[in-house]
């Protein structure tokens, strides 16, 4: 997976603030919350870090997802409308260290929904708690409900998914950042395509 195109699609949204931890915050949007940013890119994991995550999960990560984690240990897209999970390093509540990715361990171990055993939950949507997963040895990204079960939609690759969703959300939201507030009634979920729905 090539991260450069995804990074470019994110960084075009404006100013970048780099924290002491290396986390990059893109486009301050105080209309949403005083410390809200459109995008958050976390420092990448090392190869050893990825191996440690795999050991905790007791399964290999899909190669594209592992590559993304080495480039950016998770993503927050449009103020958490869409998140790609990462490996949380700390549970600090203050300072720069408080900005951590949504942890990928819990949803893949303790809170695991009904998805194939070889699947890894890689992220989700805030709107309804629905989840995204990938399977070992496969490139496609699958979107399912919070509890798993039927697949709402698929994308051919992680890169295609991220580029399409960043583009879709950019068009949907435009400069109306107030629609990213938790109390907004703007539906930020992707369209369910019946031809792609899997049972």
Chain-averaged pLDDT: 91
Number of E-type strands = 9
CATH architecture: 3-Layer(aba) Sandwich
Shape: globular
Approximate helicity band: 10-25%
**Total count of domains:** 1
Structural class: alpha+beta
What name does the CATH topology carry?
A: SMI1/KNR4-like
**Terminus-to-terminus distance:** 28 Å
* Count of helical stretches: 5
Largest sheet: 9 strands, antiparallel
Q: Rg from C-alpha positions? A: 16 Å
Low-confidence stretches: none
Describe the strand arrangement of the main beta sheet, using strand numbers. Answer: 1-2-3-4-5-6-7-8-9
Which strand-content bin applies to the residues? 15-25%
In the CATH scheme, the class would be Alpha Beta
CATH superfamily (homologous) name:
SMI1/KNR4-like
The run of helices and strands is HEEEHHEEHEEEEH
Please explain how this structure is put together.
The two termini are 28 Å apart. A hairpin with a 4-residue loop joins strand 4 and strand 5. Helix 1 (4-11) packs parallel to helix 5 (158-173). This protein has one domain (4-176): SMI1/KNR4-like, CATH 3.40.1580. It has helices at residues 4-11, 47-57, 63-71, 105-108, 158-173, and strands at residues 16-18, 24-28, 37-43, 72-77, 82-84, 119-125, 131-135, 141-144, 151-155. Strands 1-2-3-4-5-6-7-8-9 form a nine-stranded antiparallel beta sheet. The protein is globular and about 40 Å long. 24% of the residues lie in helices and 23% in strands. It has 199 residues and is α+β, with helices and mostly antiparallel strands.
